[in-house]
Design brief:
single chain, 2 domains, disordered C terminus, binds zinc ion
Length: 251
């Protein structure tokens, strides 16, 4: 069902369980959020999905997406415990949806041009924040994976997955296949998006560390709060900013 894409073969059979409606799906859960459309259990090679009534589009996109996740897990699983970053996992799954993704790819180019790109380094763990931020994280993941395919091809992506399976971490795996470590890869992606060479936007915590004085005055706290508010609207993570603000208050 998924586009043929990687040299690695599946080691375990995949299972897709389809539910006709929310009630059936919910019946084997103690509690379930009503926005959940399905679940994946990569280590079991299992995905359980609710198929809504009008399901053409859904079957075209959600099933390949979920199967790609299951495939990705098997192709990268390492007993050494290194796990690929979410941008690669989600980008890979989204890339294998059948629907065209011109809109998402354009959205990322626009975000780059407007200085609103979320550093790829933050596209780890489960994506969180408001809807716009989560959508941009998915779109950036797709964009970075599309860049991988365009530049290094099917074989490069297959080698990258294999490097994770061999226990490499993100830097090592990228270096092995692309000749670039993560920072270098991010810079190359940025330039592919139309960014100026060498000008990848500085992650906000670095900018903060570089500008905040050793002893924070009340005015500084206000300035940080103001800056944080500005940055928050652009989808950046606020934790380091909040920490500095709290520290400044208690000193
Ligand atoms: Zn996904």
């Amino acid at each position: 069902m998924t586009r043929e894409s990687s040299a690695a073969d599946l080691t375990e059979r995949l299972h897709i369980v389809l539910y006709a409606n929310d009630e059936d799906f919910a019946s084997w859960h103690d509690t379930i959020q009503d926005w959940v459309g399905g679940e994946a259990y990569p280590s079991l090679g299992l995905t359980a999905q609710i198929v809504p009534d009008r399901s053409d589009e859904w079957i075209r996109d959600v099933i390949p997406h979920e199967v790609a996740h299951l495939f990705f897990y098997q192709a990268t699983y390492s007993p050494l415990g290194s796990y690929p970053p979410s941008w690669l996992d989600e980008g890979y799954a989204t890339y294998h949806e059948v629907a065209p993704h011109g809109y998402e790819l354009r959205r990322v180019r626009d975000a780059a041009a407007a200085g609103e790109l979320i550093p790829l380094r933050l596209a780890t763990g489960s994506f969180s924040g408001d809807e716009a931020r989560v959508n941009l994280l998915y779109a950036e993941s797709l964009s970075a994976v599309t860049f991988l395919y365009e530049k290094w091809g099917e074989q490069g992506v297959a080698q990258l997955l294999e490097a994770f399976r061999q226990g490499s971490n993100e830097d090592e795996a990228l270096l092995e296949v692309t000749g670039l470590d993560f920072e270098g890869f991010q810079q190359a992606w940025w330039e592919w998006l139309g960014g100026a060479p060498g000008a990848y936007p500085t992650p906000p915590w670095q900018a903060l560390q570089a500008t905040s004085p050793p002893t924070a005055q009340p005015a500084t706290v206000a300035r940080i709060a103001e800056w944080a508010k500005k940055v928050e609207g652009r989808g950046f993570v606020l934790v380091p900013v909040t920490m500095v603000a709290i520290k400044a208050k208690s000193s």
